[in-house]
Design a protein that fits this description.
By secondary structure, the chain is of the alpha+beta class. It has 6 helices and 25 strands.
């Protein structure tokens, strides 16, 4: 193999595929990145056997070939090189990759490319096209609610449904739920429901953020005919992920369809008050009390947040609010509420409650309930 490319292009490609490298694997080759020529371009690939990322960068190819080299060493080395041309030559007999850039001349020992796992290809029918930035926003608004406990593998995934002209994503860890939906540019021919690992979607979101002109790009999503893999195709990047084979809980049945009290407040002020309250709540299971008080004679109502710590003290914050319904009191985990508000971009947010022991519903004001809904279980407070 004899190939040349720009340092900035190689560094960017390595940053895209590098997160798929397996840091602690019994197979040494999984700690490496595959470097190979592919139809006049340079292909970089990495996999941990759960997800695989492939990236293509522009290069001048004089001789075809392939090798795998240690991912961490290569990435850190290339990132420190000057922004000039990198020439790479492979000594096939010794499996050594020679890199020359400016006045630097380096040799890296590698592992034969034939030992690198074959990157799977999702061979399903028809890709579903989604705007890249829309998909990234959707992922950010649901993955925080997925479980991180591997003892419940089903809940570590995001339920993804393509039906008609809508894409709906939902995640829950048993204590909270986030549901996000959007219109598709083109309707799908048949309904598809899969569970995609939340970690894979988080990685996809990161890759979208690295794309130049991401606001003009699309992501093509293809589910394999066996429903065990999903392929995300972006400009010059492909990511394949295993799917979770399980039955996702019927989350739609736990979303309250009505409310007794509804309070609408400024999102930024609400988030700031919660973050301050959480400083005192962290010593008491993150419990923050919400007291909703309607206004009298047309005056605005009040949302009062109270957090108490036996050691640190207490914190009380009053927020002006639009209140529908009678006064109410309920308690929530501050961390869960902060996670929800952190992904809402609308200037106002509404909290809907029915009783102190029933879930609360958080929705952005001015956005239809089919677009974004979050449900948070209340905390039990001993009086």
């Amino acid at each position: 193999m004899r190939v040349s490319c720009l340092q900035e292009n190689l560094a960017r490609g390595l940053s895209i595929v590098g997160r798929a490298v397996s840091p602690r694997s019994t197979l040494p080759v999984l700690g490496n990145i595959l470097i190979a020529t592919d139809q006049g371009r340079l292909k970089l690939a990495a996999t941990n056997l759960e997800i695989a990322i492939t990236c293509w960068i522009g290069a001048m190819v004089e001789e075809d070939g392939a090798i795998t080299v240690p991912a961490r060493l290569l990435s850190e080395f290339v990132s420190q090189l000057p922004p000039e041309r990198i020439d790479m030559d492979l000594a096939v007999r010794t499996l050594t990759l020679n890199l020359r850039c400016a006045r630097y001349d380096t040799h890296m020992k590698g592992i034969d490319a034939s030992e690198f796992p074959i990157i799977p290809e999702a061979g399903g029918d028809g890709a579903v096209r989604v705007e890249a930035l829309t998909l990234r926003k959707m992922i950010g608004q649901v993955v925080y609610a997925a479980a991180t406990d591997e003892s419940r593998p089903t809940l570590t995934g995001v339920h993804t449904r393509f039906q008609g002209n809508r894409l709906t994503m939902a995640a829950t860890d048993g204590f909270r739920l986030a549901v996000r939906s959007t219109m598709l540019p083109q309707p799908v021919r048949e309904k598809i429901e899969v569970i995609i690992p939340a970690r894979a979607l988080a990685e996809l979101s990161r890759i979208i953020g690295l794309l130049p002109d991401a606001d003009k790009q699309f992501v093509d999503i293809t589910v394999s005919s066996a429903r065990n893999q999903v392929l995300f195709r972006l400009p010059d990047v492909e990511m394949v992920s295993q799917l979770i084979d399980a039955n996702f809980p019927n989350y739609e049945g736990i979303i309250p369809r009505s409310f007794v009290t509804r309070v609408a407040v400024d999102t930024a002020a609400f988030l700031r008050a919660l973050r301050l309250a959480s400083l005192f709540a962290r010593d008491s299971s993150n419990i923050v009390r919400f007291q909703i008080t309607p206004g009298a004679n047309g005056a605005p109502g009040t949302l009062t947040l109270t957090a108490t710590s036996a050691e640190a003290g207490d914190n009380v914050a009053d927020l002006d609010a639009m209140v529908e319904g009678p006064a109410a009191e309920i308690a929530f985990n501050a961390r869960y509420m902060i996670d929800v508000l952190s992904v809402i971009e609308e200037p106002q947010v509404a909290l809907e409650t029915t009783r102190p022991s029933a879930p609360g519903v958080i929705r952005p004001v001015g956005v239809g309930p089919e677009e974004f809904t979050s449900v948070v279980m209340p905390m039990h407070v001993t009086r």
